[in-house]
Design brief:
By secondary structure, the protein is α/β, with parallel strands linked by helices. It has eight helices and 18 strands. Helix 5 links the parallel strand 13 and strand 14.
Length: 322
Amino acid sequence: MSPSPRKRATSLGKPLPTVTWRQGVHLVGSALWCDALRAHGLCFVSSVRAIPRARKRAGTLLTTQTTLSLLSALHRAPEGAQLLSPLRRPFFWGSLRLELFANSDLPGSASLWVKLPSEERVIVAGQPSEQSSELLEPLQLRQAETLVIAAPWAPLHLELPTIDAMAHSVRSELALAKAMGVPLLVRCSSVVKLAELVGKLDLGPLKLHVDLHRAWQWCQSLPRFPKLHSVSARTVAPGDVLWWPPAALPPKLPVAPRELHLADGLSRAGLVRYARGSGVRQVYLTAGFSSEVAAALSVHKIGAAPLGPPQQLALFGEFAAP
């Protein structure tokens, strides 16, 4: 029997990478894609972040029941077969051994651990967070050789601000916005972080982008989630706060608002802690690669490289704050 293409490449001294970018993260030699919807194969979705807009079709969708429910509430759940898995329950899909485990990002979000037939282990982490919240399961780790992860704020923050520090920033920026007679647009990607923040702020009814509003309404049924009134809004009066996703186009307001971006996910030190705790030797960043991040990992003999479409890779060399 002739060796597989992967083994032939290895025998020639040119080992193929374990993961590559093919309109999403793809495990080489398998039909498994991660945070990318394909018309065929198994498509792991780490959280609602991975599907920013409605998609009609996908292959077999692998995710948690909570993520699928939240996608449905956001009108983003794709059609097609579904493979729903609880956390911490390993299973086989063909020759691959898989397990979903908590990444403490959003309700239902998960990281994926994969054991290949070669015995190599890969973690596709999504965008994990070290945030401590009674609304989410704590961040978990698994052992692997390769890690694929998004850490968009790692180049800018050695450690992320605390919730108290973020609340202070919102108050300070709101005071400046009121003095200028303009609204404050707060870019926030996590409905959980929003829930933690509003408990420390007295802002009245929450004025949210439609996606944040739908997610907030869905989360009202969760135990311990704040029962606060929210409205879907695209415009606000001067001195008001409008909460907006980072990736969404800014609203058309009569006057330009002040903007405040809230960091989320892992800091640079948090990324190093995650990589070291997972025992990996190679990290691929789908967001957040920089020379400083690579240097921080290399201190611990961990390689780092960006992973994404060509136009995205060009931006990694000159990272700019969101």
